[in-house]
UniProtKB/TrEMBL annotation:
The organism of origin for this protein: Aquipseudomonas ullengensis
Low complexity compositional bias, start-end: 172-181, 252-264
InterPro entries, alphabetized: 4Fe-4S_dom, 4Fe4S_Fe-S-bd, 4Fe4S_Fe_S_CS, Elect_transpt_cplx_RnfB/RsxB, RnfB_subfamily
Gene Ontology terms, MF aspect: 4 iron, 4 sulfur cluster binding; electron transfer activity; metal ion binding
Protein name as catalogued: Ion-translocating oxidoreductase complex subunit B
Domain 4Fe-4S span(s) in chain numbering: 1-60
Keyword Repeat part of the UniProt annotation: yes
Length: 383
């Protein structure tokens, strides 16, 4: 048997999860390593069955698994938590995840190999790995040829995309003859800033990118600590470089810090805070029903805080605000309590109606409570 046929026969016995737990970027590279003398016990998804098949094919002794066996499994995205970042789509080796940027993603169950490569890049940790029952596990193992074909199609698509990017980059890098002639003898000009490119907006975007890169790195480091494969080591190193690059770009885009406020502006800010606190203290005391003798000091403190604010505004040098004072009617506490009871009664009835186990007596009692609350609000006459 020549080497190509030998590699093909070995690859046919592997589960085609393309998970990288063997230390190779896929099942075919591991098959090539086995053909060159590498150990046959590095495939956790294949388990002892794969080791037994490889041992019979290659006429070599069976070895215990190097890592714990991984059962047949699939990925599941908690769609309500998905933010549509596309990180999992990019990581999937068989294109088993569908979705679009800023839209919900989902896993095609029959195409998922359970490789777990989508878990680490997810910035919101909304992907679960679910073990399959025996019947579905057998069906997944029988789809190994399908997984191989999808991985090959995935690799071909990446190669086409890369070739297209290189071609576009080369086309942009070479100016046309007309542009070269028109630029001949002209002084160099500074590149123009893109329309609508706001420095603050760009800084916020870079800050988000840096945070997501740190989260992805942390998750990958946890995966590496759990499994310790060469593939995960490469992934962690790549994510660490991406996080460092994102942090460098963020530091370079740091916006200029605003000048420190003047003493007058600082005093004005403190006066506003003091006024808000005095107003809150008076409002709390009024709600507790304190008498006038207890409320009078709080009213005086509020008046003093208002006067201090006016003085701080005059001393700050800032133009005075154009205030329009309106008289607000006092809150009718009794009417507010009646409306609150009405809202609670309505919510409790809706909750019981959604339940399948609510008995008729309980429902009737909740309906009567709601009717009474509505009637009290309707009949209320302000004093």
């Amino acid at each position: 048997m020549n080497n190509a046929l030998r590699i093909q026969a070995i690859d046919a016995l592997l589960p085609q999860t393309q998970c990288g737990k063997c230390g190779h970027p896929g099942c075919k590279p591991y098959a090539e390593g086995i053909a060159q003398g590498e150990a046959i016990n590095k495939c956790p998804p294949g388990g002892t069955a794969t080791i037994h098949a490889l041992s019979r094919l290659l006429q070599v002794p069976e070895l215990p698994l190097e890592l714990p066996a991984v059962p047949a499994q699939i990925a599941f995205i908690r769609e309500a938590e998905c933010i549509g970042c596309t990180k999992c789509i990019q990581a999937c080796p068989v294109d088993a995840i569908v979705g679009a940027a800023k839209l919900m993603h989902t896993v095609i169950t029959d195409e998922c190999t359970g490789c777990e490569l989508c878990v680490a890049p997810c910035p919101v940790d909304c992907i679960d790995i679910i073990a399959l029952p025996a019947e579905q596990a057998d069906a997944q193992r029988q789809r190994a040829d399908q997984f191989r074909s999808r991985h090959q199609a995935h690799q071909a698509r990446l190669a086409r995309d890369e070739a297209r990017r290189l071609a576009d980059r080369a086309a942009r890098a070479q100016p046309t003859q007309a542009q070269a002639q028109s630029n001949a003898g002209s002084p160099p000009q500074a590149p123009q800033q893109a329309v609508g490119d706001d420095a603050q907006t760009r800084y916020k975007r870079l800050k988000i990118d840096a945070a997501m890169a740190k989260v992805a790195l942390t998750k990958a480091e946890k995966q590496l600590a759990a499994h310790g494969t060469v593939e995960l080591q490469h992934q962690v190193e790549s994510l660490r470089q991406a996080a460092e690059q994102a942090q460098r770009e963020l530091d370079a885009a740091q916006p200029a810090q605003a000048s420190a406020p003047s003493a007058g502006e600082a005093a004005l800010k403190q006066a506003k805070i003091a006024l808000a606190m005095r107003r809150a203290e008076l409002g709390k005391a009024e709600r507790q029903g304190l008498d006038d003798s207890q409320l009078q000091p709080l009213r005086q403190a509020l008046a003093d805080a208002e006067q201090a604010l006016h003085s701080a505004e005059a001393a700050s040098g800032k133009p005075l605000p154009n205030l329009v004072r309106t008289d607000k009617a006092p809150v009718d506490r009794q009417l507010r309590d009646l409306k609150t009871e009405l809202a609670y009664a309505r919510a409790d009835l809706q909750r019981l109606e959604r339940r399948q186990t609510a008995d008729t007596a309980t429902l009737e009692q909740a309906r009567q409570r709601l009717a009474n609350a509505e009637q009290r609000v309707h009949d209320y006459q302000p004093q």
